[in-house]
Amino acid sequence: MPRNSSVADVLFEPHAPVTIPIARGGLFAVRRVYCVGRNYAEHILEMGNDTREPPFFFGKPADAIVVGGAAIPYPPQTSDLHHEIELVVAIGKDGADIAAADALDHVYGYAAGLDMTRRDLQAVAKKAGRPWDMAKGFDYSAPIGTIEPASAIGHPAKGAITLAVNGVERQRGDLGDQIWNVSDTIAFLSRFVTLKAGDIVMTGTPAGVGAVVRGDVLEGSIEGVGTVRTRIS
């Protein structure tokens, strides 16, 4: 909507804002979702890639976020839906060209999240050199748990990050294994875009990604941060 337009000028009712619950009360209104690709060495190797490249980013629409442990539907046009457990960073302060030393001042809090991926579509896109949008940015592709404010938990730099499917552990890593830590990731990303309060950064997944099917229950946990849960319907 143009800045000088009124609500009465809008063709249809604006969509409700996307929000994530905050652990100690309130809601975090989401603006954009940025995702870091290939940020744990073992996951990079299991996907057949090289660990020596700088970070790169892809996006998900804000309304792909699912909260409250709600079930998510198995998406269409895939037969290979994968789980990826990730540390989610909630940006609470605007900034561009942010120095790594100042980056954590821009973080409001943290959560556990899932980057659900249509792996077969991603493989086709990779082979053809095409964007990953339909592999990563589909409906209900970003379940996220409750945000814990950094003022309460600090800025976790290490700690177990795990994902279980139907009670059986599939993924286990440590936040300390990230190639690009939160400070470096924010600094690098802010060279390309102005980060705004309300932005979400999903920081990559450890090794152990794999397929899920209808009926599976996914439970992720990050030490000192929280949990995320969903069921594939």
From TrEMBL:
UniProt keyword Nucleus present: no
Alphabetic keyword roster: Hydrolase, Metal-binding
InterPro entries: Fumarylacetoacetase-like_C, Fumarylacetoacetase_C_sf
Annotated Fumarylacetoacetase-like C-terminal domain residues: 33-232
GO molecular function: hydrolase activity
Name recorded for this polypeptide: Fumarylacetoacetate hydrolase family protein
Keyword Transferase included in the entry's annotation: no
Top-level taxon: Bacteria
Organism, as annotated: Devosia oryziradicis
